[in-house]
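Renewal narrative, Specific Aim 1. Our central claim is that a sequence can be written position by position from structural information alone. The example that follows is taken directly from our test logs and has not been curated for this report. It begins with the structure tokens describing the chain, in the order in which they were read.
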């Protein structure tokens, strides 16, 4: 960012490799950037270090905020589209393509995500359940629906049948506890 008429920027936001894009949030007090270094980063205008680093295994092709900026979508050369909550280290959902993810969008109501890829597919994902659930329930729901879990923020691990049954039971327990407290 440069003040008009000056030759030096007010702030420089640094990635380790080529920066593919950047955008302001609605209030223009934060910037979301994405790069070939495998990260998207959320920055406050007055800070040198990022507020949050969103990691992928390969270059990040793009990123965007949802309408109220409570979620961030990132898509990458690793074939993954990830849904993040600002402030949380791990994504709350991951959507997988077989090849490079080329883009992603929220629908108008933000109940679905549209993704497209070099694998020749456009995919529509339902995320309407997320606002009705606690974060723990959202994570368990993702794990049960996909039979996978995110490890170390970037690796998708398929569950064995026994691990999947344990997650199903844990999800049932969480839901039973929530219903009994209502």
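The sequence written for that structure reads:
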């Amino acid at each position: 960012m440069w003040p008009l008429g000056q030759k030096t920027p007010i702030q420089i936001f640094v990635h380790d490799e080529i920066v593919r894009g950047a955008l302001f949030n609605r209030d223009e007090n934060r910037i979301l950037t994405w790069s070939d270094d495998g990260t998207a980063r959320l920055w406050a205008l007055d800070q040198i270090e990022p507020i949050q680093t969103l990691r992928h295994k390969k270059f990040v092709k793009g990123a965007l905020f949802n309408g109220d900026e409570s979620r961030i979508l990132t898509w990458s050369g690793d074939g993954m589209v990830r849904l993040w909550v600002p402030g949380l280290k791990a994504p709350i959902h991951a959507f997988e393509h077989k090849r490079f993810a080329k883009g992603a969008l929220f629908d108008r109501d933000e109940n679905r995500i549209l993704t497209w890829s070099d694998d020749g597919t456009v995919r529509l994902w339902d995320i309407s359940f997320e606002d009705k659930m606690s974060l723990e329930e959202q994570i368990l729901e993702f794990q049960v629906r996909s039979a996978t879990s995110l490890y170390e923020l970037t690796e998708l691990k398929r569950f064995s049948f026994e691990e999947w049954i344990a997650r199903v039971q844990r999800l049932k327990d969480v839901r039973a506890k929530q219903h009994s407290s209502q």
